[in-house]
Amino acid sequence: MLAVMRAHAVQRLFCPPLVLDQLAQAAATAECPPLVEIMTAGEQLRLTDDIRELLDRLPGVRLDNQYGPTEAHVITAYLMTGDPAQWPATPPVGAPIANTRVYVLDDRGNPAPAGVPGELYVGGACLARGYRGRPDLTAELFVPDPFGSEPGARLYRTGDLVRWRDDGTLDFLGRVDHQVKIRGYRIEPGEIEVLLAAHPDVSQAVVAVAGNLVGYVSAAPGRSPDPAELRRYLVAKLPKYMVPSTFVTLDEFPHTTSGKIDRDRLPRPAIPESGRTAPRNAREEAITKIWMDVLRTPAIGVDDDFFESGGHSLIAGQILLRINEEFSIDLPLSAIFQHTTIATLAEVVEAGTESRTVAAPHRPASR
Predict the structure, then answer these.
(1) Which of 300, 322, 199, 181 has the alpha carbon at shortest distance from 242?
(2) What is the pTM of this model?
(3) Which residue blocks in 236-312 are alpha helix, DSSP H?
(4) Exposed site from 29, 244, 306, 321, fewest CB < 10 Å?
């Protein structure tokens, strides 16, 4: 992607923050394209060190942080100019664009003052009509607009938690319903919790994000939940991206004074140092080092799953590029999706190396 952007002298880029971060990492030791404007949307923008370094190498570049749910497309925008070093780590999502209306409302539907969090409601010409074939969901989330003058006007309840800033822009704070995004997928933890709680070994379940998706469970009477069994159970019922990478069994869940589970006090899962299989040869050792560098993890075993360790398709591309350079081979990107552990991938690398060694000299095809 970086090479294509340079070849075509691309000046304007629109991408999710995740892609921008990966692009910034790729550009760290390469020539930058002549970007003058970058627009991000799709998830919360966080200015990582890699992104700041990229922006610092692009004099005069503008960064336009945009926000908008699928049900309404782009709603707000926040344009940043000047010295990237002075930009906030989590920039605002900005103010409403033309022909849109936004309201920050409390639990009673009243406008929240500046600085007070509330749920974001949006309306205007951008709004969808509703969900096809789902009149119940449409009625629940596309509600009558109490502030508009147009008959029949509606607002969409985004479920996003925001607050007004004094300058009239919005800060994005998260999801009202704890909905999260993992590896680019929007996930509702409650769906996973219901399935986990239905397992005969589980009494209660909570799913939260602590680096990756984590399943917290308490044991049913006389039972002892096995993480491997819980993973197999969920894999059979859910897409792989919705299956927690780690399971933690708790004797008791922390609670708030009102009796609700206190998600902020859930313990972070410990990184298991024991039980990991160390590299058994130079090939596995080299691949392990590449995985640790790209995944930015202090430890990984040769039997650990790539996706359960925080990997995704963009990182897979980086890893395959470095493996092909390290071993002078040409594995396709599909290799890491078909062989998701270092141990199995090392076998493919070995086969590719041997094939390269014994391959016949290239001869031009006859015409």
Answers:
(1) 181
(2) 0.57
(3) 282-295
(4) 29
